[in-house]
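Repro:
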Amino acid sequence: MEQQKTQEELEKREMERIYRAILRAAADKVNSDDKKVIRKAYNLAVDAHSDMRRKSGEPYIYHPLEVALIVAKEIGLGATSIVAAFLHDVVEDTDYTLEDIDRLFGEKVARIIDGLTKISGVFDQNISLQAENFRKMLLTLSEDVRVILIKLADRLHNMRTLGSMPAYKQLKIASETLYIYAPLAHRLGLYAIKSELEDLGLKYTEPEVYRDIKLKLREEKEERVKYIQKFSAPIRKKLKEEGFEFDIKGRPKSIYSIRNKMKKQGVSFEEVYDKFAIRIIINSEESREKADSWRVYSIITDYYRPNPDRLRDWISTPRANGYESLHTTVMGPDGHWVEVQIRSSRMDEVAEKGLAAHWRYKEGSSKESRLDEWINRIRELLEKPEQNAVEFIDDFKLNLFSDEIFIFTPKGDLKTLPVGATALDFAYEIHTEIGQKCLGAKVNAKLVPLSYQLKSGDQVEIITSQKQKPKEDWLNFVVTAKARSKIKSSMKEERKAISEEGKEILQRKLKHIKIPFNDKTINDLARFFKLKTSQDLFYQVGTGVIDNKRLKAYMNERSGGFYSYIKSKFTRKGSGPKVPESDKDSKNQVLVFGDDEETLDYKLAKCCNPIPGDNVFGFITINEGIKVHRVDCPNAVRLQSNYAYRIIKSRWVPSDRTNFVSILVIKGFDRSGIVNELTRIISNDMKVNIKSINISGTDGYFEGIITVVVYDKNHLDELIENIREIEEIQSVERKYKK
């Protein structure tokens, strides 16, 4: 009994210790009224969780208290967030309701708790549910960023205490952390939390690697400290002479980042050359931060030679998460590369505490930062979320975690896009309407296709046309979530309009052939054409895919004939014919069917065993699709006389008579009509299909890329020779994809 009482006293003292640490951390952000509300929340949390313990055996209340301490000390949030951190598990795990929280602590706290409760199961074995919960998380981010910040603090404490969990849970939680929480912390500017989450994630996903690197860093510590002192000595002296107030810190790179370098570069721990960084933090007024940072850079490079490829200026162009710093890598004493980070004390706080510090320094400024732009972009995306949550998470991850490029408008305004973004992404970034009407683009005054991948520093002018509208193939080369969302939305609207028109057309056609337009007929038609919904049926009628000929086939099927049904069922997808199992040895010839000589799935009839070169015909069976018979088959006469409507014309053709896409790069002297002559030769004279064409000219010289569809290499060579006969053409080369 005495021992139990002593344990309770120790636990109570520990709770009070953490509570006092929270108040100290938030001292500059809370007043006496705030402290009363914080104490009230603390008392409620202690009472609500009084009988609960964690897997480790310690009181559960330690968890919300530690989360609140991270929120106050490491993120730098104020009273509302501290109260929400105390109470973040109360609604989910105890008898208290959201209404109770609203009544006791107000709407703001209740809204944050509601957001935290909604995303408590963000990761689930069910992928669609997981994706839906991720979207919920983003919704809470767009409504109140504090929800995500408290969630990150919650995850950080869970990772710090993960050792008490069984191994399978450790792996699951650590993997989730590396997958979503660490990148989110990075994107929100919380570098210290991001690094710790990554290191702890590695600790449980690759424990041996983690221990090995940690041990080696510990062994190098004494040597590293001496080297940092040696490196810093002349810089300290010069900075003092120049009148700077500063602090120099040297610390090793995170274990996770060292592991990443080892994997990416294929090197050992000993071969990673920049295992630590030196940070120089100067006390400068905001108006002088940039100039002072460059002065410090100048002093450093007076002593140590910089690597010109490793200069990163995130002061002139901050990262999207608000990060500002000047990074350079210099050759230090004894031939070691050293990364040096130069920043002001304000920049350092923003880098360490992310959003909280960012908004504190932003107060009173009307200027919207790129971090605000990013939050606004999330809001915009979520206004009209895709129905398919899995697609949504895939689209968003491309933008949430990607590196950035910086693109200029014709007027010199700066836009930020993810790496891999195209000219069309840029058009949508400017404005949705510009994206929808985008016809082409000029990058650095040179005409480029919409799919052109942009590079940092490009200046882009968008060309629009009122006649242009989004196309489905645009989705193949846009990468920003905004562009993908808008294109998909537009395609859905267009599809809906075409479906409505198709419904009216189908109604008229069925009336004409005296078939009732009712649910039974529509379901029969959808089944006949292998379509999932009536909307798919109406859309195909509206686009002309289902025409009079195919509707007649449906009528035949109603009375026994169904060639079009088999055609739609057995038409192969892909670029070339697929030889059936029974015909794998016949590589030189393939079968084509019908007047259009299409490649369809088929089987060779065992009664006559046709081979390539035989005169054959196709017979549409009830259950086995198309069976191919020789024309002199013993069953031919019976089949052709009794089932003429099931016979489909067939013949063998050379297997190389298939279609192949090839890209030609054409250069020459520009003149009026050159494009017309090129297309005439390609389309009319050579009967070659042009898949796409992009030609741009400058100062009397033009370059073009033409994508064509040819039968084989001989066909392509003949085409190239014909193009070369045009007097102005200087070169025609076949382009090979890398």
